[in-house]
């Protein structure tokens, strides 16, 4: 008996139906994906259309990306505004992330934090394992920030920050540093890094003599800020969610 046949659950649902219900595509499209060897069940590539699986326990991937089968799981991206604290409640009465997701059916928890003066993308989810892995340093989840800073930044700063500097809590370096605009009084820079240390971009730029005026996180993992406006929320699903899960080995 093949490994694929071992996966067959006579009491389960047809694989193409499970995929279609998860939003991968029509049943016909899902059948084609299976026939092309692009679908795996519990790590085994499946090409047989008659395979039945248990959607409550099976782990499915399409083109290497995890497919979320649990319809109770919800992940959203929020464009956090300046002045909003990255908590779900605040004893000082300040605006919180909860104010923007209170109409959603699930209770959500934020993944990491943005300081109160920083804008940009922050994820909220009720998937505890996904949240844990995204926040864990070992997965080195990439993030992108755009900052307006004081002073005229020169291109030489790229080598300095990509080589690394030392802060009071240890060394740090940018994965990529780009000077987008250099003005007489202010400059605009873009920084990619995977560190989740507190106020890390502000501290880095302060250390090299260019204090941050405004800061926006434009990307978290593979989730881009895109067309989101301040205060807006959108659901993360489909292949985008699959790619996010795959980044942290889910």
UniProtKB/TrEMBL annotation:
Keyword Oxidoreductase recorded: no
This protein's UniProt keywords: Isomerase, RNA-binding
Enzyme class, UniProt record, top EC level: isomerase
Superkingdom of the organism of origin: Bacteria
UniProt domain RNA-binding S4: residue ranges: 13-72
Alphabetized Pfam families for the sequence: PseudoU_synth_2, S4
Example GO molecular function: 23S rRNA pseudouridine(2605) synthase activity
EC number(s) on file: 5.4.99.-
Keyword Isomerase part of the UniProt annotation: yes
Protein family per UniProt: Belongs to the pseudouridine synthase RsuA family.
Name used for this protein in its record: Pseudouridine synthase
């Amino acid at each position: 008996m093949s490994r694929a046949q071992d996966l067959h659950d006579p009491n389960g649902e047809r694989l193409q139906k499970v995929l279609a219900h998860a939003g991968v595509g029509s049943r016909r499209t899902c059948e084609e994906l299976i026939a092309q060897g692009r679908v795996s069940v519990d790590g085994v590539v499946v090409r047989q259309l008659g395979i039945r699986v248990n959607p409550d326990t099976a782990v499915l991937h399409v083109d290497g990306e995890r497919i979320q089968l649990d319809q109770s799981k919800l992940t959203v991206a929020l464009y956090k505004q300046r002045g909003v604290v990255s908590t779900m409640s605040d004893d000082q009465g300040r605006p919180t992330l909860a104010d923007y997701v209170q109409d959603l059916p699930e209770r959500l928890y934020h993944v990491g934090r943005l300081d109160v003066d920083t804008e940009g993308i922050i994820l909220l989810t009720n998937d505890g394992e996904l949240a844990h892995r995204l926040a864990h340093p070992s997965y080195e989840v990439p993030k992108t920030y755009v900052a307006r800073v004081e002073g005229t930044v020169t291109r030489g700063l790229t080598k300095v920050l990509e080589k690394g500097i030392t802060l009071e809590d240890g060394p740090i370096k940018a994965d990529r540093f780009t000077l987008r605009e250099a003005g007489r009084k202010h400059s605009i820079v873009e920084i990619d890094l995977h560190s989740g240390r507190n106020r890390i971009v502000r501290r880095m730029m302060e250390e090299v003599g260019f204090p941050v005026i405004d800061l926006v996180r434009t990307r978290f993992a593979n989730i881009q800020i895109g067309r989101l406006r301040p205060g807006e929320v959108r659901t993360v699903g489909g292949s985008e969610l699959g790619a996010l899960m795959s980044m942290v080995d889910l």
